[in-house]
Every structure is written in structure tokens, then in C-alpha cells.
Amino acid sequence: MKTPDVVTAVSGLRARVEDWRREGLRVALVPTMGALHEGHLSLVAAARKRAARTVVSIFVNPAQFAPHEDFDRYPRDLGRDCAYLAAQGLSDLVFSPEHDELYPQGFATRIEMAGPAVGLETDFRPHFFAGVATVVAKLLIAARPHVAMLGEKDYQQLLVVRRLARDLGLDVEIAGAPIVREPSGLALSSRNDYLGPLDRPVAERLNVVLAELVQSLREGESIAEVEQFGREALRLAGFDQVDYVTVRDAATLAKAEKPVAPMRVLAAARIGVVRLIDNMAV
User: Fold this and answer.
1) Cα angle value 160/166/170 (rounded, 5°)
2) Rounded to the nearest 5°, which phi and psi values hold at 247?
3) Of 40, 99, 127, 146, which is the active-site residue?
4) How far is 28 from 145, CA to CA, in rounded Å?
5) Quick one: CA torsion of 274, 139, 58, 56, rounded to 10 degrees?
6) Could you report the per-residue pLDDT of 80-93, keeping only the tens digit for each?
7) In this structure, which of 62, 88, 122, 279 has its CB flanked by the most CB atoms within 10 Å?
């Protein structure tokens, strides 16, 4: 069991990647905020199938947290994450920079996006995608991977990063990997650890309701009826707040007027301090 090498400086990351590129090796990047779980490992495994070398970045990005969100208590344990990766033998390098390495004193750049970044998450977290776009752009520029692997659980984020790479002319493939779920169907997330024993049965209703909505759409029920039913079903399940339940074009996230494939049903809801997101293809 070999623990992956860890670099903390962009210069060290670039040197390793450039060595691999000179050898003609394809390189993949898996950007994470740490607190790794099986969902992250599925991304690394998927990246490994697309590239000869894999880099996992671990950085809790302050730019995507609002002041009232959980930045300070977000779990951080680099040793545990590296041991987890080592046990799987999937990652060749971990990039774990300090804050000042990515955001040095005087840093004054922020990437604002439209397109798939408009609405849904930004209706409730208006700061979020500017923070994501800025840090992902820096990671892609620093690592120069051939492919970057993101999970479909954060489906809007996946489309935002694809648009970012396309608009900035970054020579990288942005690939998506399927959602990994617990046996109950709850999508894996680091924040699931915040769920109390009374919260978990409520949380486990989210994917059940989404599956029901997908089936209703396939049977011809109208989008408006499906969305209304979904909001009511989540409230009845015990969620404290339903941020959205919506049916969107899977390629653009534009509002769907009528059921035409491909579509995605996306939802976000809160139980106490925990905010859960999920989505399913129609």
C-alpha cells in the first residue's frame, strides 16, 4: 500500500504533471474538498480508466462558502484522506495547497458566470458558482490535466465547469461520473455525517420522491404537476424547507416546457442545518 505523494505548491504540481506529459502519459484531475468517501473514490476510479496518472486535489475553498455556512466546521483530515486513497491504490499525487497558495495576498480576481450558473443553487447561494468557477479555473490552469472528473450529484456544478472550460478555451475534457448512493438510496455526501438519527429517515425520502417524479414524467404527467407534487411530497416527508424541485433540460438547465428527453429532475431541501441536493435523469 503506497501512500500518494503530496505536493502543496503549484510549482511542484506543475513539475510532476509536466514530467508525465513528456512521457506521453494522459493525466486526470479529481478536484475535491477532502473528507473523502466512496463517492470520491468512484471519481478517482473513473479518472483512472481515462488516464495513466491521477491527481486528487484537496482544498476547502473559502470562496464558495457564505459567512453563515459551514466553512469552519467542514471536516479536514489530510492524513486520513491520503490513507484512504492509498488503500485503493488509485491516486498518484495529492495536491493540497494552503490558502495563500491559491489566494495570495492581494488576490483580486473573481469569475462570474451566466448560462447554467443562473438560478437553482444561485437563487439560494448567490456567491457559490463564482467561488467554484474561480478555484476550478485555478486548479485546471495549475494542473493542466487532459481530463477532470466531477460527480453528477452536483449536476449544475458539472455543467457550470463544462461551460467554464469551453468559454475560457481550456484544453481539458470535463467528464461526469454517476452518483454513488448509500444502500437506502441517499446520495453520498460529506454532509450526511451531520444528519441526526431522526433526520436520516427524512433524508432518505429525497431519492424516493425523485424516482417517483421521474416515473410520473415518463408516464406523461405534466411538468408543472410533477414539480408541485415533488415540493409537497418533500414537505410531507419532514423536510424543514424545500428550496426547489424542478425539471430542466439536461444539457443546458433551461426550464423545460414539456416532457422531452433528455431531462433532469433536480431538488434541494433542508433538514435542520443540513442542506441536501440530488438529481435524477428522466
Assistant:
1) 110
2) -110, 125
3) 40
4) 5
5) 120
6) 999 999 998 889 99
7) 279
